[in-house]
UniProtKB/TrEMBL annotation:
<protein>
    <recommendedName>
        <fullName>D-2-hydroxyglutarate dehydrogenase, mitochondrial</fullName>
        <ecNumber>1.1.99.39</ecNumber>
    </recommendedName>
</protein>
<dbReference type="InterPro" id="IPR051264">
    <property type="entry name" value="FAD-oxidored/transferase_4"/>
</dbReference>
<comment type="function">
    <text>Catalyzes the oxidation of D-2-hydroxyglutarate (D-2-HG) to alpha-ketoglutarate. Also catalyzes the oxidation of other D-2-hydroxyacids, such as D-malate (D-MAL) and D-lactate (D-LAC). Exhibits high activities towards D-2-HG and D-MAL but a very weak activity towards D-LAC.</text>
</comment>
<dbReference type="Pfam" id="PF02913">
    <property type="entry name" value="FAD-oxidase_C"/>
</dbReference>
<dbReference type="GO" id="GO:0051990">
    <property type="term" value="F:(R)-2-hydroxyglutarate dehydrogenase activity"/>
</dbReference>
<keyword id="KW-0274">FAD</keyword>
<feature type="domain" description="FAD-binding oxidoreductase/transferase type 4 C-terminal">
    <location>
        <begin position="8"/>
        <end position="239"/>
    </location>
</feature>
<keyword id="KW-0560">Oxidoreductase</keyword>
<dbReference type="InterPro" id="IPR004113">
    <property type="entry name" value="FAD-bd_oxidored_4_C"/>
</dbReference>
<keyword id="KW-0285">Flavoprotein</keyword>
<dbReference type="GO" id="GO:0050660">
    <property type="term" value="F:flavin adenine dinucleotide binding"/>
</dbReference>
<dbReference type="InterPro" id="IPR016164">
    <property type="entry name" value="FAD-linked_Oxase-like_C"/>
</dbReference>
<dbReference type="InterPro" id="IPR016171">
    <property type="entry name" value="Vanillyl_alc_oxidase_C-sub2"/>
</dbReference>
<comment type="similarity">
    <text>Belongs to the FAD-binding oxidoreductase/transferase type 4 family.</text>
</comment>
<dbReference type="GO" id="GO:0005739">
    <property type="term" value="C:mitochondrion"/>
</dbReference>
Amino acid sequence: MKVKILWSGVENFENILKLYQNAKSSLGEILSAFEMADNGSISATLDSFKLANPIAEYPFYVLVETHGSDEAHDNEKLSRFLSQGMESGLILDGTVTSEPTKMKNIWHIRESIAGAGLAGGYVFKYDVSLPLRRYYALVRALRERFALPARVYGYGHVGDGNIHINVIVPEYSKEISAKLEPYIFEEVSKVGGSISAEHGIGFRKPQFIHYSKDKSALHLMRDLKKSMDPNGILNPYKVLPDVDT
């Protein structure tokens, strides 16, 4: 199985959505990852971990990974996708590689975003899913809601609508926390998203689960929990709130 990566710079999020649609139609079965990150995410990561960006600085970045068994066929597909992206202006610059070390370095940039900014203060982290048409709107709304020195970054997995939002502030404060929650969950609920995309509800979000699940769903979840775990000893205190919401 041959793996290739395209790391590219993009002007705006609207172009990322167009590029994603093109990737699905052009790359088809060999498309295995379509990741995005805004400039703030990447800049904070490069600065925090002293990493080098293989391309110049751009407002947004897209990482496309392909897996295929027919190298000539796969190369043709990816080359055509890149050429069309450059010609249309959707891709401003990009680099393609199948060299293991270079691919590892690019993925390292993407996967290091979660830890970026910790040295500069406190990071409020959110993991939500949103319809693609509203995918980046919450980041923009939070930037309007918070003035500097707060910094708001967005990055995630476009293919499944999962976006990670980091809000970096000089230090933790209850006032900032109250301004974030439940605001973020209310905004997610308004557009039919989920308050937790891939990291679960855990201890922190049971009181907010009603923004994603209605009362009938919560009652059913409680009934199933009681039938399978009548003593409440399996993964206690998580997911479901103590009282009806």
